[in-house]
């Protein structure tokens, strides 16, 4: 039995449901804890009554951690969500004392194969993380860090709990969506873990948590109905930055690769978008609370449009 946890609001609900769909397809036995960050998402998950899902409400978490409510008005909504993350993971371990190993998942990930190889690799370790594996031309962007928050393991032992509680306390102290003194949101804290905690393990499996930031560095292929990155089976993909920009056009955020989209990858995006739409008949399936600085957003949007057109990085679904 594997124990996963994720969090989302009503905007990210379609992505969380796709994540659940993919786990049901590829994970033999699991429980998924879902932190619903607003009443609308909580209501819909409870109404669905999924057999392998346990619902946690934001009110429940804030009752367990009164500090969270005190911080709510001093941080943007997305910064507040990031702040809640580590406290939520610790809360799940408090809820169920039988959990030996908890795995946090970003809601916008999708599984393509059984994650068991990662659990086998983690044997004897307390903390598991996946590197961003950035291409060389992007490694100068210090705010992105060495590791990605998308998949995190914490074992219920001295080092695993010590690391999780340290991360929780740091995010309660400071968690903002800006780079400052070696910190950025909840993510750059992970860079300190190898030197602070024993039992740290960085996964080397290339098929784990691939995303728009590194997929261009891999040779993508398909054999026996399985997708491979180099010679590694694709375990799960992180559909970060996917955005609907018109009634039938979706932007993939692959501008980071500066390469044309391989047909296999394009089909992955098409299938994922279609599945998102089944879970969001009345809303934009890629909606988000994220806010952008106007000037920066305009410049970035212009760059995305130019690169996206040159390399064919848009998906059209009517």
Short description:
This protein has helices at 13-26, 39-48, 58-64, 66-71, 77-95, 116-121, 158-173, 193-196, 263-278, 294-311; strands spanning 2-8, 30-36, 53-57, 101-105, 109-111, 127-131, 147-155, 179-180, 183-184, 200-203, 208-210, 220-223, 226-229, 232-233, 236-238, 243-244, 249-251, 314-316. The chain has 318 residues and is α/β, with parallel strands linked by helices. The strands form 5 sheets. It has a 7-stranded mixed β-sheet with strand order 3-2-1-4-7-6-10, sandwiched between helices. Strands 5-15-11 form a 3-stranded mixed β-sheet. A 3-stranded antiparallel β-sheet has the order 12-13-14, with no helix packed on it.
- Which second-level CATH architecture of the largest domain applies? Alpha-Beta Complex
Structural class: alpha/beta
Taken together, the total number of domains comes to 2
User: How many beta-strand elements?
Assistant: 18
CATH H-tier superfamily of the largest domain:
Spore Coat Polysaccharide Biosynthesis Protein SpsA, Chain A
Key descriptive features of the protein:
globular, 10 helices, three-stranded mixed sheet, Spore Coat Polysaccharide Biosynthesis Protein SpsA, Chain A, 318 residues, 2 domains, seven-stranded mixed sheet, 23% strand, alpha/beta
Tell me what the structure shows.
By secondary structure, this protein is an alpha/beta fold. The protein folds into two domains: 2-209, Spore Coat Polysaccharide Biosynthesis Protein SpsA, Chain A (Alpha-Beta Complex); 240-316, no CATH class. The protein is built from ten helices and 18 strands. The chain has a seven-stranded mixed beta sheet with strand order 3-2-1-4-7-6-10, sandwiched between helices. A three-stranded mixed beta sheet has the order 5-15-11. A three-stranded antiparallel beta sheet has the order 12-13-14, with no helix packed on it. Strand 1 (2-8), helix 1 and strand 2 form a beta-alpha-beta unit. The N and C termini lie far apart (40 Å).
């Amino acid at each position: 039995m594997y124990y996963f946890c994720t969090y989302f609001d009503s905007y990210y609900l379609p992505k969380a449901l796709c994540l659940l769909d993919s786990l049901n397809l590829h994970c033999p036995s699991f429980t998924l804890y879902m932190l619903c960050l607003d009443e609308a998402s909580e209501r819909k998950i409870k109404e669905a009554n999924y057999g392998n899902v346990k619902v946690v409400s934001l009110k429940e978490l804030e009752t367990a951690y009164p500090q969270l409510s005190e911080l709510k008005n001093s941080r943007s909504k997305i910064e507040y969500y990031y702040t809640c993350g580590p406290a939520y993971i610790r809360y799940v371990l408090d809820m169920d004392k039988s959990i030996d190993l908890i795995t946090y998942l970003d809601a916008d990930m999708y599984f393509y194969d059984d994650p068991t190889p990662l659990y086998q690799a983690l044997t004897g370790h307390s903390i598991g993380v996946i590197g961003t594996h950035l291409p060389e031309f992007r490694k100068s962007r210090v705010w992105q860090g060495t590791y990605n928050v998308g998949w995190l393991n914490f074992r219920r032992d001295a080092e695993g709990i010590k690391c999780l509680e340290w991360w929780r306390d740091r995010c309660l102290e400071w968690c903002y969506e800006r780079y400052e003194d070696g910190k950025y949101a909840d993510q750059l804290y992970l860079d300190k873990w190898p030197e602070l905690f024993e039992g740290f393990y960085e996964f080397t499996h290339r098929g784990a948590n691939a995303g728009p930031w590194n997929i261009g560095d891999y040779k993508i292929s398909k054999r026996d109905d399985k997708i491979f990155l180099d010679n590694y089976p694709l375990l799960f993909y992180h559909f970060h930055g996917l955005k609907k920009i018109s009634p039938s056009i979706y932007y993939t955020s692959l501008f980071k690769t500066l390469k044309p989209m391989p047909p296999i990858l394009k089909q992955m995006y098409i299938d994922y978008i279609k599945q998102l739409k089944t879970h969001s008949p009345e809303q934009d399936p890629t909606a988000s609370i994220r806010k952008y600085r106007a000037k920066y957003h305009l410049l970035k949007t212009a760059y995305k449009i130019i690169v996206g057109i040159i390399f064919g990085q848009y998906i059209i679904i009517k």
